[in-house]
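Severity: low
Component: inverse-folding endpoint
Summary: output formatting inconsistent between runs
Steps to reproduce: submit the following structure tokens with default settings.
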């Protein structure tokens, strides 16, 4: 979580104007947390407090309505009920890091990543993105090398 939030804040000023260098200041006067941090925290709260992902996302997201949500997600955030909108975007992958830390088997990680994604991003690619990130975090936590993580993700998502 700390790494995800730090990366979000550090990268926030480059979101609309990407850079191609590793030589940049970590923090800028305009650095801020974004929707990705808010939603990651909501996923973590749902796990820690045994609550529904969608309910936690809506609850916390409405507290921070100007965090930078995309148009469809923002609409979802303020609509009554929790109805997915077939998104295949990367929002579900950007918020899933707590799942990779909280669960103790690949099967649990894949199941919970799917559950955290499908409340809004129910397109198969939106779900797959969340599952891939969560599983990569799980494997890194287990001490897998970068090559082993890449191989496992390739086998899991591209050879089935």
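Observed output (run 2 of 3):
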């Amino acid at each position: 979580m700390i790494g995800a939030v730090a990366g979000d804040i550090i990268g926030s000023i480059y979101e609309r104007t990407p850079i191609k260098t590793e030589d940049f200041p970590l923090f800028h006067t305009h650095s801020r947390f974004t929707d990705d941090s808010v939603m990651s925290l909501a996923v973590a709260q749902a796990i820690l407090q045994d609550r529904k992902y969608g309910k936690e996302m809506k609850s916390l997201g409405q507290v921070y309505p100007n965090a930078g949500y995309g148009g469809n997600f923002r609409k979802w955030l303020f609509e009554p009920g929790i109805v997915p909108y077939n998104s295949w975007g990367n929002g579900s992958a950007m918020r899933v890091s707590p799942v990779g830390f909280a669960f103790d088997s690949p099967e649990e990680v894949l199941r919970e990543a799917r559950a955290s994604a499908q409340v809004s991003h129910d397109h198969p690619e939106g779900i797959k993105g969340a599952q891939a990130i969560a599983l990569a975090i799980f494997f890194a936590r287990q001490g897998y090398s970068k090559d082993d993580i890449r191989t496992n993700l390739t086998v899991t998502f591209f050879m089935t």
